[in-house]
Design goal:
By secondary structure, this protein is mostly beta strands. It is built from two helices and 18 strands. Strands 3, 4, 6, 7, 9, 10, 12, 15, 16, 17 and 18 form an eleven-stranded mixed beta sheet that branches. A seven-stranded mixed beta sheet has the order 2-1-5-8-11-13-14, with no helix packed on it. The longest helix has 10 residues.
Amino acid sequence: MRTLVEVVARAGPGGRTVLPVVRASGQLAVRRTGPTTVHLVATAFGPLGGDEAEIRLVVEAGARLSVRTVAAAVVLPARGESPPSVQRVSAEVAGELYLQPEPTVVTTRAHHHALLHAVLAGGARLTATEQVQLGRTGEEPGHWTGTTRVERAGAPLLHTTVGLGPGAPAWLPPVAPRAYASTVHLGEAADRAVGEDAVRLPLPGGWVATAWGDRSTPTLARLAALDDTPTTRSEAR
């Protein structure tokens, strides 16, 4: 199944944000739930192997948009030889964009590709968080591959790919996390910080942080704890 979501945020009178385009088809519906917030709602089980979802976001100068989901996404394999499911998020941002979905749970035999490509204007702000859990309770893990590319004013700031699950190059027991969380932020700079199974690295005008573990909730807590971790700038000198 192919899914398409499109949202455009535009600055309106009095500093308000208006959403002239809010539409979706396929496995997702989109609902405006606040002045600057939309939630994605699953309308069918999945994604299943072979499903493709494309989410197109445009945030114009002076506008603000927050995109959330109402529940975790459970990735399931198709029957027989299961091809990957794919979700592509493309964002053009001149204002402020916040991507804060619930976790993606990748069940056994399933393989999911998640791609984020964000193109930012000079003064744009972005915060995008990804949460992944490989396998449900008592279940063997599936496979997840995530690629994030962020550009500002035509120059690349970040381009990274992470693969998790049996057979992935960086997934070698005993270092084989079943949970992963990552946030990329462009708006305020931050120094490097290291926590328990978590690290934050600076970017020009922002930062990227990752954490890993066995379960999603404590992994996300490790990510949040980096804000309270003393910086390690002196160690880098």
